[in-house]
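ESCALATION

Customer reports they have been waiting on this structure for their group meeting. Please prioritize. Original submission:
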Amino acid sequence: MVITLVGEKLAKPGLEFIYYGPAEPCKSCKLARVCVGNLEPGRRYRILRVRNIEHSCPLHEGKVRVVEVVEPPIQVLVEPRAAIPGSMLTLKFVDCDDPKKAELARPEGLFEGDHVKVKEILDDVECNGRRYKLVTVTREG
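Update from on-call: job pushed to the front of the queue and completed.
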């Protein structure tokens, strides 16, 4: 679990967001270390809990709230031989030219080379004439 700050209007348990990096005003903010310093650019986060603490912020219509976040499980296509619940693997994105399946082949929040744990096998998916497994993974380390 990570502590960070999000805009007051976005501070709701269950909300997911992708952190793309600090905005220009964040670089000189005294709260930057706790706000954006705990997040990794390109990663997906889910708000678990909203704390009853707020701070002023020039970016978020005046206020941000302290929240607890985690990286949620993410769905991704993998080679069938890698789709074993509980197994650890180094993520290698599959080739898929179908725009409707692009988010499954290269989901935001994961990077090729990430060490992930397969949590669940969801479905068989065909792409570019090959069969893949749609699995849910969590990033480990």
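Sent to customer with the following note: The CA atoms of residues 11 and 109 lie 19 Å apart.
Escalation resolved.
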